[in-house]
Design goal:
Shape of chain B: elongated
Distance between the termini of chain B: 41 Å
Strand order of the largest sheet of chain B: 20-23-24-28-27-26-25
CATH class of the largest domain in chain A: Alpha Beta
Helix content of chain A: 25-40%
Oligomer: heterodimer
CATH topology of the largest domain in chain B: Phenylalanyl-tRNA Synthetase, Chain B, domain 3
Strand content of chain B: 25-35%
Radius of gyration of chain B: 33 Å
Shape of chain A: elongated
CATH superfamily of the largest domain in chain A: Bira Bifunctional Protein, Domain 2
Number of domains of chain A: 3
Structural class of chain A: alpha+beta
CATH architecture of the largest domain in chain B: 3-Layer(bba) Sandwich
Number of helices of chain B: 15
CATH architecture of the largest domain in chain A: 2-Layer Sandwich
CATH superfamily of the largest domain in chain B: Phenylalanyl-trna Synthetase, Chain B, domain 3
Largest sheet of chain B: 7 strands, mixed
Structural class of chain B: alpha+beta
Chain lengths: 465, 547
């Protein structure tokens, strides 16, 4: 049976069969592999019971700055002896020659070695050589180490080392953990040339590539569209630019309503719709406003072009034109509000809005459709609160509990179109209507707290979302 | 939506001694009130503009009493005809602010909190029903400082009086230029030579509507009797406002005396209740719950309306301040609220229709799928963009520009007529990300027509150092062939500053131009600070793969 070896494993095996017991660094040099490759190879071989890894502590010594100085100029006590060779010297003379701490050390050691004698003469202390000094074990050790790094085993006089270590900055002691790699008996006798090759380093890092994908917000839009199609709703499309007639008047919003002001709605400069609706639609809507809101409705206001503030204008127009008997319809798309852009407000966002006309058009059915929709999105803890919308009555809003945020969040609004909206357009049956922003749901899904992220097209986010 | 700050203990006291804090917090949402924040005993409540009576704790307490079953039905407002309170309207106001209405509220007491709430309510009424004081505006005065009868007339702009919160006499013109209310609302009276004014019988200035009251009649915690006057250009709106203030002051413990109003087109307000007779079957059909008429009557009373069953119909009495109730549909909502929205069980009826996506959606999705298959990441940009990105940086023709009025955001002022500029802007904001960068977008573009045409475009852009015209052409042709089997050609086109000279073309399908393709010109790339090669194309999908 032949084993499959990676090229890295083969090189390590062959090298260790020639020279057993090598460090990873040595193996790296001998195999010409990178240290990372060697480490990985050793790990693989160890798992296959082919390599043994011995960890040991290794202590080494080399000279420190004072050690090097002494190697060149002698230890302080040797320097003193050299000074005294020709004649005895006073403390002051010695002190000026051996600067700083060197003086005390030199005198103390020379005296301890029995090399000098000190005589008091008047107020002066005179130092002279007592006996010819021989080379000390420490001096021998210093010249043995020289510029090398030696291991503990190479030291023949441990006492001398102990003395030198006690003197500051003579010796640098280093201890490091080393690994020594050796082969098991099985490995030693392996014939690597017989093993088949072709394996690759399956654990190595590779450059990142990014999946091409649809936009996360588009994915949410598609998911929501799919849910409503499954609930029996058909999609209709309509323009983002609309006459005020369909965006406001047809939805019973009086012409002096604050929502219609420039500061809330985008009006298109110098653009008007000459015939926003049929003459009977205009006549009926106008009289509904005059009668109920008690003011003078003006055609010119309804001709002004706006960027739709909701998709409801699309569904109401569809109802007015098609007058379906029984239908489930939705419209999905961008809507606009003249707002300051912030982490929670955009000037342009997506809205879905749906209606039911015909069978099963009670408030309970409306709530049931909402509940089912949220269920399909995975949101099961919901409740309904009353609210106000100008064109529906009764009006409700859905509150959805978000576990992560630990609070109730307001999602879609809903209601039944007011008769003041439907009657003038020739719709006699109740119409259920609901709708809401999609970004809000997408933010929950992608855990974003800044809605602007969806439109920044930041590649690092798109590539990782 | 307007927000009001209230103290929960005050509400508890107003509702009744026994109600708990939790009961109040639980029921508030079912009155249609959103609790915005809760800090200790102070709560911030958002209310709907159709219920201005919910702008004070008096109004909210009245609503809570109903839903909690503590007090039900209408609070009647008897108006005494005692006393000699009257206001005469001079015909000079007809052209500028023709209507005045009002009432005297007496024998009550307001503390500082109540006064502050009334002032805030007044501002919310001014902004809502009053349409920034244009349609109607209110003034509250200490009636004991006034000698009746009053006159509603006009004065010239050099007339002087000490305005509310002022210390010295100021002329009308000074008030309009020097005070904040003058600056904010002066436009309501435009350039009229003479302005509306209310004098008392001693010729003291009482009010300069719709701008400011006089200091003389300031309402304080010592005020016992209040004159409420509302002026406006819409009689109905003025009486609407009056009725809301009356309902609040009534809950606060005041009684009412009539203020006689005489003069051109004006009349003494009656604040009459509205009576609506309707068929209860309608409500059962709308809510989807079989409910007995007497049960509905109970629900209506819980919403502080009065109702009774007469034969097969319900007669409902609606107080004057509930002018948000137009028709039986509104009563149905009241019944649902009285029943309790939380008690209505959602019902899922099987659909009798089959759902269907729009053809445009389906085909656009097919294009997106191909683009993803070819390695492109989808971008989404706003339809509203800036002139800078759309035309200036790309050196495109801006003669057909479509602008919106008064945008609050500089980056959103122009409707896009092309997708490529925003994609270039996207590349420019991603120069630190790894290349190649490949983006696509499908979206609506706008052009002037009747009055505006909207069509769906597809744009694709590739950025990295080795990209080329051949690469983008191959991508373009592949996109149109896949699924749609459309063969396209590229034909040399006249110079276009977006693209490099000699390295761009028009895209033709069946002899018809459908788009443009090419290498983006280095000057344009410079404008976007993009330091690599970029190629791209844009095609109009409307008319090509769908109508």
């Amino acid at each position: 049976m032949s084993q499959v070896f990676h090229d890295i494993e083969k090189k390590i095996l062959e090298t260790l069969q020639k020279v057993p017991n090598q460090t990873p660094e040595q193996l790296s040099t001998n195999t010409e592999l990178s240290i990372d490759q060697v480490r990985r190879g050793i790990e693989w071989l160890r798992l296959k019971d082919l390599a043994i890894v011995d960890e040991s502590q290794k202590v080494t010594f080399s000279l420190g700055p004072n050690g090097f100085d002494s190697l060149k100029n002698g230890l302080p006590e040797r320097k003193l002896i050299n000074m005294l060779k020709d004649e005895p010297k006073t403390f002051d003379q010695i002190r000026s020659a051996l600067s700083g701490a060197g003086f005390n050390v030199a005198i103390a050691n020379a005296k301890k070695n029995g090399w000098i004698k000190i005589e008091k003469n008047n107020s002066e202390s005179l130092v002279s050589i007592k006996e010819k000094p021989i080379e000390t074990p420490e001096e021998k050790l210093l010249s043995f180490i020289g510029e090398k790094t030696i291991s503990q085993e190479q030291i023949s006089n441990p006492l001398a080392m102990k003395i030198l270590l006690s003197r500051p900055n003579y010796i640098i002691e280093t201890s490091e953990k080393t690994k020594t790699i050796s082969l098991t008996d099985t490995a030693l006798s392996l014939d690597t040339s017989a093993s088949s090759s072709g394996a690759i380093d399956v654990e190595a890092d590779v450059p990142s590539i990014f999946a091409a994908r649809t936009h996360p917000l588009q994915d949410t839009i598609d998911e929501i569209r799919e849910i409503f199609v499954n609930l029996g709703f058909s999609e209709i499309l309509g323009n983002m630019t609309q006459s005020s007639f369909w965006n406001f008047d047809a939805l019973f919003t009086p012409q002096d309503h604050p929502a219609r002001e420039l500061q809330d709605t985008f009006y298109l400069e110098n653009l008007e719709s000459k015939n926003p609706a049929t003459s009977s639609q205009i006549k009926n809507v106008s009289s509904s406003h005059n009668k109920n809101w008690k003011y003078d409705w003006k055609l010119s206001e309804s001709q002004k072009m706006v960027l739709r503030t909701h998709t409801t204008c699309v569904t109401i127009k569809h109802l007015a034109e098609q007058k379906p008997e029984n239908a489930r319809i939705f419209s999905l798309g961008r809507v606009f509000r003249n707002e300051k852009v912030s982490y929670k407000h955009l000037v342009e966002f997506n809205q879905i809005e749906g209606i039911v006309i015909g069978n099963n058009t009670t408030l309970r059915d409306l709530m049931g459709i909402q509940k089912e929709f949220y269920k399909k999105l995975g949101l099961t803890k919901i409740k309904f609160w009353p609210t106000f919308f100008p064109y529906t009555e009764p009006s409700l809003q859905t509150m959805v509990y978000n576990e992560k945020l630990g609070k109730w969040i307001e999602l879609f609004g809903m209601g039944i179109f007011r008769p003041e909206v439907t009657k003038p357009l020739g719709i006699d049956k109740p119409v259920l209507a609901w709708g809401g922003g999609i970004e809000r749901i997408a933010m929950l899904k992608y855990e974003l707290d800044d809605v602007r992220e969806f439109y920044n097209n930041n590649l690092s986010w798109l590539r990782s979302a | 939506m307007p927000v009001v700050e209230l103290n929960i203990n005050r509400i508890r006291k107003l509702v009744s001694g026994n109600v708990t804090r939790k009961q109040i917090l639980d029921v508030l949402p079912f009155l249609g009130l959103d609790i915005e924040s809760e800090e200790g005993d102070e709560i911030r409540i958002e209310y709907s503009p159709n219920r201005p009576d919910y702008s004070t704790d008096y109004g909210i307490a009245t609503g809570l009493q109903g839903l909690l079953g503590i007090k039900k039905g209408i609070q009647k407002t008897p108006i005494r005809k005692k006393g000699n309170y009257s206001i005469k309207v001079d015909s000079t106001v007809t052209k500028i602010r023709p209507y005045v209405t009002g009432i005297i509220a007496s024998n009550g007491k307001l503390d500082d909190v109540a006064i502050k709430q009334l002032m805030n309510m007044q501002e919310d009424l001014h902004d809502g029903i009053g349409r920034k004081r244009k349609k109607s505006s209110i003034g509250l005065h200490d009636a004991d400082k006034i000698s009746f009868p009053l006159t509603y007339t006009t004065v010239s702009r050099d007339h002087k009086f000490i305005p509310l919160n002022g210390s010295t006499e100021q002329t009308i013109n000074e008030i309009l230029t020097n005070t904040e209310v003058g600056q904010n609302y002066g436009s309501v009276i435009e350039n009229a030579k003479n302005v509306p004014i209310i004098f008392d019988s001693d010729q003291n200035t009482i009010s300069f509507p719709p701008i400011i009251n006089s200091r003389l009649t300031t309402v304080t915690p010592n005020t016992k009797n209040i004159l409420i006057e509302v002026t406006g250009i819409d009689k109905e709106a003025a009486e609407d406002m009056l009725s809301v203030v009356v309902s609040i002051l009534q809950t606060a413990g005041f009684e009412f005396n009539e203020l006689k109003i005489t003069g051109n087109k004006n009349s003494t307000p009656q604040l009459k209740e509205k009576i609506m007779i309707y068929d209860p079957k309608f409500t059962s059909e709308i809510i989807g719950i079989e409910m007995s008429p007497s049960n509905m009557v109970t629900c209506l009373k819980k919403c502080r309306l009065d109702a009774s069953v007469k034969g097969k119909k319900i007669t409902c009495i609606i107080p004057r301040y509930r002018f948000d109730i137009f028709s039986p549909m509104d009563l149905t909502e009241e019944i649902a609220l009285g029943y309790g929205i939380a008690n209505i069980e959602p019902k899922l009826s099987p659909s009798t229709t089959i759902g269907q996506k729009n053809d445009v959606t389906i085909k656009t999705k097919l294009i997106s799928q191909t683009a993803v298959g070819l390695g492109f990441l989808e971008a989404m940009n706003s339809s509203l963009t800036s002139k800078k990105v759309l035309y200036e940086m790309t050196k495109r023709d801006s003669s057909q520009i479509i602008s919106v009025l008064d945008s609050k955001s500089q980056e959103h002022t122009i409707l896009r007529d092309s997708l490529l500029p925003s994609l270039l802007d996207n590349l420019s904001k991603n120069i630190h990300e790894s290349y190649p960068q490949k983006l696509f977008e499908t979206g609506v573009v706008f052009s002037k027509g009747k009055p505006i045409d909207e069509s769906i475009n597809l744009a694709i852009i590739i950025a990295y150092k080795d990209t080329s015209y051949s690469e983008i052409k191959a991508i373009m042709q592949s996109l149109l062939r896949t699924n749609f089997k459309i063969n396209s050609e590229t034909k040399t086109s006249k110079n276009n500053e977006l693209f490099s000279k000699g390295r761009h073309a028009d895209i033709f399908v069946n002899e018809k131009k459908v788009g443009e393709i090419g290498e983006i010109d280095s000057n344009i790339l410079e404008n976007f600070r993009i330091r690599t090669s970029v190629v791209g194309f844009e095609i109009k999908l409307s008319g090509l793969i769908f109508d």
